[in-house]
## 1
Amino acid sequence: MNSRERILGRVRRALADVTPETRPYEEAVPRDYLRAHGERTAGETVDLLAENLADYRAIVHRAGAGELPALVMRLLAEHGSREVLVPPGLPPGWLAEDGPVRIHDRAALTAARLDRVDSVVTGCAVAIAETGTLVLDGSPDQGRRRISLIPDHHICVVRVPDQVVSSVPQALERLDAARPLTWISGPSATSDIELDRVEGVHGPRTLEVILLG
Amino acid sequence: MSGTFVGMPAFPQAAGKAVRNPTLRGNLRHATHTIRAKRERAVGELSDWAGLREAGRRIKDHTLRHLDRYLEQLEESVTAAGGTVHWAADAEEANRIVTGLVRATGESEVVKVKSMATQEIELNEALAAAGIRAYETDLAELIVQLGKDRPSHILVPAIHRNRGEIRDIFAREMGEWGRPAPEGLTDTPADLAEAARLHLREKFLRAKVGISGANFMVAETGTLVVVESEGNGRMCLTLPETLISVVGIEKVVPTWRDLEVFLQTLPRSSTAERMNPYTSMWTGTTDEDGPRAFHLVLLDNGRTDTLADTVGRQALRCIRCSACLNVCPVYERAGGHAYGSVYPGPIGAILSPQLRGTTSEIDASLPYASSLCGACYEVCPVAIDIPEVLVHLRERVVEGGPAVRRGNKVLLKPAKGHAAERAAMRAARWAFARPGALRVGQRLASRTRRLHPRTLPGPGRAWSGARDLPAVPPEPFRDWWQRTRGGKDGDR
């Protein structure tokens, strides 16, 4: 007998006392909780997102479509970035013509090469207001998971209000489980020293979020 | 790492040593009190917390009651998404599988995400024996590994260390493992985090094999979820060419939607955050993004034995948040090492004796490592009635009886050390059934009270070693009542 059969056999013997559930799963497990906490207009939801992002030390900016390239260039300049990493499908209008050297991400770029890039600019798939969370799903405007991880400075553009949801349940409804997902809530942090939160460990130590709308 | 839990003394001896260590008690008190207040605030933000807790309990219970079905579904989904599923009945088999997978890559080092399952099976030691070096990359795990120490908390394994101790460990040990700590390293948490960032960076960038656990596995989609803070998890999950995840079979949930419950309750219960900084979700492999090979090792190692116990099986609902540790008055004073297991605190006191059985001295003593105050049950986000299981396991230790070990039914013998307790209970039963004898005994005890020793002799010594004997009153209550009618007649 192989271990698969052994383990499944042990499970079945262990559950000899259990009457199998015949109802569909969603009936068998009632969900007496809220889809979202509180009633908010679309604008208020964006405000809550901004507030919660800032609470976990992300730096939040707002811009209209016309202002975006200038803002991105200013943030890159303020960070002193000489090179900026760009996912393959970043909307062309998000960056100005001048500014730091653009490194277009491709599979051949090694992790060591990515480590020498100062900043990265990406979009996102969805943002969650209640928790101050950005979710990236590897779409062309976001790129591979590693590009929003290795550079020390991440600029993430959120289209508001379209990409913003109130809650975790609403975010999961929008996301595709088949894609590789990264949920980001503030810059990297740790609570490992005396259970106190300190920002800045292995992921980007500076997270800037631009609410575009 | 030299740290091992084999041959640990029973809880009272280990705890007795810990409570006499003022640094340890200070560190634990500071950390647990900090997190307690923060957790209350984070939980208080959600008006439907009770509903989320109940849904979490029901999802986990339902899954456990149909675990065979969901494991088969998970295997199918992971395989369809490009992963390879392995089954490990025990720690030895899991270690053999992982060692073989690493060897097949030709690599001699791996980077690791913090994982309770791999701590439980002592994977690092098994890899070291095979000539493979495993680098822990979680900050607290790194502190434990560099300090040749043992973990003492589920979430923050180095909770017993304060910033000064961490600075000393980094300054002394980092050079042995790779890039040394910066000159003049201070003990500010930001500097310590920076030292860890620099030390581990080169390891992440060259890593070819990553090893992780998982917080959740979704049967419906084959998705694995790792919840973390630092980004070391993201590094290990996305940069290597090969990813091996070792996950306990109880970590499966049926549907994608189920994550909406646990992604709300886990961060708020563990680090007291609305959301932890990073959560990674992956389903098999993705072209040109992340590892090209993904192996999932499903681990039993005592979980099916635990499942066979109709009272104790609820311990398998645990999502390893560690809220029960942070509120426990016993944990706060004794520290995590006294529990003699990678699972300390209240959840460890019910999990370890079930996963490992109650035959060793430490495992037989763990169900007693509690005052049954119930704070752990209150904060548990999946409503595990820890006091109920503790009492159940105490009964098993004292009375023995049927249990399942390694899939086989066994009949446990009553524990030897509890003969005196059983004799005392028999005597009590006899006396309480005979009021005359009870009265004579109580009066005798009152009259001789000045002669009573401070500790019990013989087999009672163990009991009074950690407790003060109750003072015997000058007269038995019933005599006092007879004499005074409860004080109504003006006495005193």
## 2
Amino acid sequence: MKKLTLLLISFIIILTACKPVDINAPAPVYDTGIEPNTWAFIPMGAFFSGQFNFETTIDYDYEMMVTHVTNQQFAEYLNEAMKDGYIKIEENKVIGYYPGDEFHDGRHEEEIPAGNYIHIPLDDPMLRLDYDGQIFTAQPTWANHPVTMVSWFGAKAYCEYYDWRLPTELEWEKAARGSEDTRPYPWGETIARNNANLITSRDPFEDMSSFGSRTTPVGFYNGKTYDGYVTLDSPSPYGIYDMAGNVWEWTSNVYEEQHYRYLRGGSKDVYENYLRIWVRNSSIPTYTSSGFGFRCVK
Amino acid sequence: MQAFKTRFNYLFTSTKGLILVAIALCALISAFFGSLSGPMADLGVKTVIVKTFGIDLVEAEREGRVIILYHTIAMAVIAIETYMITDLVAMKENQRVQINSTITFGYLAAIIGGLPFAYWGTSWIMHGIYIAGLTLIFFAGCLLAYALWPWRNEYKVKNTAYAHSKSGYDLERVAFFSVSIVTLASALFGAIPGSFYGNGFFTFLAENVVREPIKTTLQKSIIGHLHIMLALIAIACALIICRYMDFKGILHTIAMPLFIIGSIVLSMGTWLVVPFEGIAHTVIYGGSTIAMLGALLLVIYSWDKLIKTGLAEKGLKKGNFFQGLTALVRDPIKFGVTWQMVFMNFTVSFIGIFVAVKLDEIFRNWPFMDEKLILTGHWHILATLTATILLLYYADLAGLKGKSRQWFGWSIIIFSDLAFGAVTVYELKRLFVEEAYQQPVVNITNLLGDIGLVVVLLALAALMVWRLIDLFKKNGRWSQEVHEKLESYVEEK
């Protein structure tokens, strides 16, 4: 009898870990007060790059978006770009032209010839945009969240449509770290749960027993309190938000002998050590994920 | 004072005492530093531990810390295997004492110097002690190789049931010897490029550089070093189990050359990674397949022996399938040491081969973080399954009997397999669940993994507490173990 009870208890514990996923479960709506259409100025000069603090110089000024590109911004872009014929829809995907990469036949390198490539999948339930056959709209709950499910081609096309571009890895790093010190996180030396959206950060958008970690609105970690959830003000030295956590950010570099594209900043789905400024993720450029987003520079 | 002296002598001069100390240290290090990550960190234990013990966690030094941590644990495991080998394989008593004392000083220095260096500020004195420890271990390895030299007349087999050359030289001894030689060379394969091309300030984990198309010599040698050292620890473990199970007969005659050739070819394959990365993998597959065939023969022999012995105990010469199965699993310790080798195929070898074969087609289409999960899981499982085999063997040496033997043995087998099975599913989840729907899979695999590991650690803790209590008894088991050899059948050869 004792053995049976033990077995039953174990079974119930295991079952509790097995709730079905409702990816459209309601989420709270918060205005963070951080305006997505703003840019931060990053002056030319030296900074420390990488885990081992190589002194590196960027010899030009540039500006970076203060927040990730939001669903609202991306929906507006899609409508304009569709009208202009910059992008089109085929087989339930928004696609666009890419002139291709030079192929070097590197080990594991795959050729990326000129052609149309996926920007976003329209049939993926994680896409927080609606399309009625004419117009794209951001789902109201997610309008001020980072746009996700965008491929590298889609992110690049967005930035270039407005004559901006994706940041290089070094531009991204400088924007995250500033030029003064060798901090591992954009806001400083240590990380707390309420500095950024990471796995088990216990933010109001997360339910680890069901759908897991979800995105937070852009600029969420700005020191405000949301329904009792206290955040720490966590911008980079240049005032840029979410440079650690929330979504991995596509960067622009195309390296010789490889077709991978690199992402920075960590995401809602990873532990804090992946939010360190120098950590790199990589992916094929057509991959779309609910944990991938981007921002532009100019 | 006398009581302390006798116990000290037991712990630091007898084989079983030395093994006990090394296992206890492994357990303490795993328990303490395991609290700094995973579920313990989530539960806030990490914060308490860091504050209480004044641990200095510099973010940029994380990779270096992790490297030193697993090197210290690996050194203790290598010491355990060495203690077993010096007692199981015939050699002069003074050689046994020299090897054991050198490696004991070595791994203790590696722990005493390495962990404070990594976790309590980078004191270079501690780093020096750590390096001195690693050097002593290497020196102990040289002494071991010399002691194992097989081509001496006194070590020719006396019983021809054991694999031997035409001249009567003991092929099992040749296998131990060749593994010790290639292990020494493979240690250098990490140490020399590490100090020549790199420096301690720029550390990296091998799994973080796998996608770089053009790898530096240092990166290639570190990847090779990691793979070969783990593989050789596993092969040495298999050879130890050969002695434990008194492997002999025709299968032994076939298996020993396979272990010898397999370990040499496998090692050469990993050394070739630097100059000829393209063909190195083929050589590695060849070598590992040959060595795994040797292990398969050990499993066949061992299971056949367990079944026959079990049936004989019941007065049966032959039995049906269920009687055979009952006989096979009646002793979880003796069954477990080889079952874990079989299970290793499902969670390590087959997965490794599958990933290698489908790398470009499947796994390189995933984000790097998903691929990295497989790589990290792969070698963690190989290392820990090897540890459970050694632990099961030690449980037998420690004299675990009756119900506690059954409980301990089955706890280790069932719960470690549960944990590693769950981790394997977690690693590969992207094959069968989309990112948006993965959370229940993540939850259930994490839960099962945690349950499995907790039970294994509790079983280990219980074993250690039992042995600790025994040390307080005047005539405890330890007092008989002081002079006990691991196996008496060594004399048979």
## 3
Amino acid sequence: MANSNVTAVYRFVIDDVITNVRRDFEDMGVDETIMHELQRSWETKIAQSRVASFQAPEPVAAVEVYPFEESGYEQPPGASTSAAAPVSALGSATSTYSTPPLASYNYRVEQTPAANLANVAPSTLTGDNSNVGRPQAHVPPRASNPGAGKNISLPGGGRNGTTNSSNPPQTDGAADMAELEFMSTAELDAYVEKRFREAREAETEVTFTLTLSDRAARKAKRDGLEGFAIGQVDGEEDDDDDTGLGSDLDDSDGDMDDESDNVVLCQYDKVSRTKSKWKCVLKDGIMLINGRDYLFHKANGDFEW
Amino acid sequence: MSQYYEHYRKSSIGLALIDSLDELIQSGHINPQLAMRVLAQFDMSIAEAFGSSRVRNRVNFKAHLDNYRSLDDVWTFVLSNPTFRFEHDSVTAEKVKIVACKARVPGET
């Protein structure tokens, strides 16, 4: 298989990132369990995207408790006040946070604060330089309002740019959207297929709308529904997609942003043209073609305009 | 930090990471500042993955060029009916978009 090295390279990238951000998590006083959760969630998403033969991490047993130890922090006297104090307010907000879609990770905040305290107290009180509670001048006030981070979108924030951040929690009743979002891709396929079958049988025009996020919709399409246009219901096709490359690429001329699912991200050594023949020499590419990822070290392209 | 390209964040593995970070931000477990740090590290790790000759394969491809653009050292091509020829097999597609940043000359920042 042409993409057989993808898994190993992705494995390397994940491990390298996690290894190297450990210190940043410590510096910001974020517990290591969160870092492991990041890794687990990241791996799960890659596995689910099916772009490579990537194994999903073992599901953690639902009974496993992630004690949010930071919620029990005590600041050593004289420490900067910003780090941990407000976090306890988070307790209730996070207690049933569940990750989509592999089901049932229930994060439970320890019921007895004293237990947490017991874990943390020795290191903080003895003032050794363990990360917890270490005064960190640059730690920003941690979410005293748990929603504080919601409106911040990351640069290069994905194909759907601002969509994630503009997705407030649903408060108006049935969360059918959430259900769809949290379906596994297999369930999603089945669901979509069923809907199409129904529509075909009824010989009506296929105009049903899927209230999926843009990304999920693409994924569904990639997973075997090519050819069906999934009605976009969340406004204009996002031309203002934040590509993370600076604004240059975003100034649409619509044709360029004709989003196809197949994307090659790479660097160029040389691009040349003779009349209508183009040649380009590319390197270090990540390609997503027909739902599979491929990597290349070098690539030669011949185009005719 | 600026010597690492950020456009690989739009790859499958990058988007997966962004999604995961977003969830952790929204649930209040990390702040955006830490997420930025993780993404900056991702840029470095991707560069390292390519730079350390973990990826050795070559690809040749032919296609019809529908559209192109060059802005600030970033080429964008929209191709139709590309055929990618790998060492042992080949893959075709209807359309593909290529986003290529200028390869860095060694020693240049």
## 4
Amino acid sequence: MKRNTQIFLITMIGCLILGANKISAQTTEGTIRYLRTQNWAKMMSGLDYISKNQRDRMMYMWGNRSEWKTYTLLHFNATESKYEDSEEEAEPGNEGWSNRKELFFMKRDFKANTLYDGMYLLGKNYLIHDTIVPPVWKILNDMKEVAGHICMNASSVDTLRKQSIMVWFALDMPIPTGPDRFIGLPGMVLEVDINNGAAIMTADKIDLKPLTSELNVPEKIKGKKINTAEYTLIVEKQMKERKAAEEPWFWGMRY
Amino acid sequence: MRIKFILPFILVFLFGFSLQAQNPARTTIKGVLQDTLHAPIPFATVMLLNASDSALINFLSSNDKGEFAFSNVKNSKYLLKAQHMSYLPIQIILSPSPTAINNLQVVTMKPISQMLMEVVIRAAKAPLRMRGDTVEYDATTFKVPTGSTVEDLLRRLPGINVDADGNISTQGKDVKRLYVDGKTFFGDDPKSITKNLGAEAISKVQVYTEKSEQSKLTGVDDGSKEKAMNLELKDEFKKGSFGKVTLAAGTEERWAGRGNYNRFNDKTQFSVIGYGNNINQTGVNWEDYGEFKGNNSFNDYDNGDFGFNRNGGNYYYFDGNDSPVNNYDGKGLTENYGGGTNYNFDNKKTKLNASYFYNQTQLDFLQTSFRQTFVDENNTFTKDDTVQNSDFRSSHSIGTRFEQEFDSSNKLIAKANLRFSSNDNHVINSQLFSDYDLQPYNSLNLNNTNNLSSYKITSAAIYRHLFKKKGRSFAVSGGYNANLSDGTENYNSLNDFFEASTPSEQIRQLINNDKNIEEIKSSALYTEPLSKKWYLEFFYNYSRLANKSNRQAYPFESEVNIDSLSNYYEQVTSYNRLGSVLRYSFNGINASLGFAGQQLKLDGQYATDIGQPWDSVGVSKTYPNFTPDFNFNYEFKNNMRLEVGYTNSITAPDFNDLVPLKNTSNPAYQIVGNSKLIPENSHNVSAGLFYWNPSSFANIGFNTDFGVTNNPIIYNQVTVFDSTSGMLTISTPENMEQSKNINSWLWSNIPIIKTKLTIDVNGGTGWDYSPTRINDILDNSKSTSFRLGGNINLTPNAKLVFSAGFWGNFSKVKYTINAEHNQDYFNYQLRSSIKWQFVTRMFFESNFNYSVYKNDQYGFDQAVPLWNASVRRIIGKNNKFEMRLAAFDILNKNVNVNQYATKNYVQASNTNTLARYFMLSISYNMKGFESKIQKNRFM
């Protein structure tokens, strides 16, 4: 045990030192591009209310070819961040077809501890205002490099969506934010793994630069104003109904 | 009484005692971070974790004096972590504080020396991880020569010692137990595995401490612990398999059997399937076929015929052609056998598929039909037909597909299919012709056999290149298809006249028909992005289809062919098309406008036999055309989508319409050619509107299609009475002025009570106008049809699913030349079904369909009730067996009915099919049967 702790400590310092040269030139604002890969068959195989035979068949027929890649962006400075979809096509060769851009942004002000989300959910636009309640994180002792940063490992359980969450956050970017709802750690979250690979977000480009209007949210957006509790109710209701019908709950909702 | 009296005292005593001993409920944890020289350490990350599960409670950064404070936190056991880039991280276990402020005073962090730093950098990059007390090594990063054993791998792992005998130890302790993927293997000696298992199979090596075997057995933790090691296998060494077998026997000599077995690992899938039955399952079902083909069931980008559609049709493609899927059409009785094997390899860069399938079907049916043909305003004749058909088909198919992604911008797809098939057909057909008064005039009896064997090859290759510039791409495809067939037809017809001077006429002929069709084709596509929203595409298509056919007719038992019925021909169709599409795509709007110039060239030469001089009458036609194309797709807010499209297509006349080939298979029907035919030019406009509600899952769609065909090629019919052959219909293809049609569809699926009650409604109308010349009189017949269907699905609970519905089709045909024959005919069906899990693992399933076919004018009114029911029970450990007792067509009324009205005739037919039988089946499923009713309808 003592030896293990030693190994851990040594590893831990390693990460700090590796990050050190970055920290010295650190700008506390910029944009991180995440490659978001969703595997439809793996998403389905996490739905325990659908028969195992059916899920196995989907994995067998689709497991290797149901990946769908998109880019998402996280703009941040020392006190705020905004997460949104990128217009850039992540799968080359797919250019020339455009889906309607849905309302989606997640704004976080971690100094005032407030959130402001705009999202298209089940056919409607919602504007969510509330205080930030970050997930309950468990800090694990794993280390890994993501986009040139040595990251620490933390895990969480999304009790609403019944997902296991594994994230990697960079201590040399001491900004308590990250993509989507994965925030509240002592460093920037650079990688997220939902349900063992069903959805993975990995930072693939970190652009530290002064931001101009990236953090702004359009002033006039139509949408129903709700709070986090009301949002949770909407998601819970949909999940319950889809479960009763044995159909995926994430049709019409972000995973 | 006494207790009641004493209790408050005890409570007060206990409460008072605990109050005295209790720590404050909340506390403030503070301290100062300093280095060994007592200098403050600012901007270090300090994390407060729950000691029991490492949950993050709070974190902060130390201030410029090195101070940190977590104020007013719950007073409990914590783990405090502090990190800074220039110091060794520290972890402190904090016990609940007896005071309101838990001042840790000075927390000292040691600076990192230059030497240590180098060690640390190496360690940070070392491929090992800590999870609790488990050390995990990433085996793939430790390079060992190929063929090395696990033992060789372990020797390279830091912290693991392997002695000369192969004994493993770590952290000074012997590794006593070895697991592979968490499972123990035979024997207690770990060496038997480490010396034999190949290192390349291992992805991770985990070392941890576990309770001794003794304490595991007794459940008493004697404190003695052992080191254990787990070898995690790479995914591709993980294996799986599944399979099913069903055997069934029934009354009326009915039987069925089928089975499939699949084995797979991360990269490969292998499957075998087999079936045999006489219950009209002419192939496998879609579900079994999907499992058989595995991850090769659906392939995108497989269409190399580029054109107006984006990327030549960017859709998933199920190789449905020639697939061994059940395609029974409801007529007759069949006996079927088939089986095959499939192999898939997929490592993301390379995908390979190879499959073989054999299937055969023996089909026998007896069909009786009635047809009334309108000759002119006053005259009609009727035909009563009896067909006895015996048909045997078999085929061997070999399919391969190869896909290689060379890098992110270059990809090749190559496919080849080979099919050998044979068909033996025997038809005994008796036709009785009667005049309007239903007086029999003549009877024609045919007894024809037809044997055909053919080889078919289809192959294609598609290569795609993506340029560095986003959106710029190039694709080229090529294909070769061939079909060689060898057929023998044996015609035997006897024409009996009831009133004529020549009472009967007999034709007996043998016909040999060899065909050789070859096609080569190639296409190219180039896409240039003009901006983020605008794209310009160019495409080119070329194809050449050469068809050589030698057909020789011989009189019965004669070697000398009949010149008038024999022919040899060579026909070549060449096609060239050059087109361009301008595409706009932005935020849910996708529109395209395209134009193409094309040329169709038909060349045909005819002779009486191979080697004979060509006839003077040949075909040499060139049809140049210019075709536009338009498509618009708009996604509204709220999940509504609009699609509008226009296409223009040119269809060249068939060679056989230009120069017909005489055929005596049915002496009462002849086709005459027309060398003046020009291509049909059809314009089609379609529009659709679709809506989906993601919250309720309600969906509604509406689609309409309007088509105008200029110069449609229509078979004009002249029915004459010939004193030597009776009623003779001569059909001549001709370009008429214009035909039109409109078709509309509506479908919807609306949940009335979420998850319990759903209603489907669908319907449609069709209107068709096509001019026909019947006995040289122009008839502008119009037909209209209405379809309406509805279904209610009721799921009161997880154990009961009930559905009821109807479906109806009403058709109206109006003739201009003899309006009294206008037709109204009507088909409808009522249906209901139930699935009921009445006891755990026992199910009752039943469905009832009632079909009615009506045509009042002819007094045709037939109803077919069909009722099926079954009970099944899942048995055995892990639900691996299923027994099912099924009753098919309990009322014994099943028959296949068809009715139909067109330009100049109405027809109704009845065909025998499988009627009542009972069947008992037993199935085995390696993975176990599902012990509940499946509600969803996808996959």
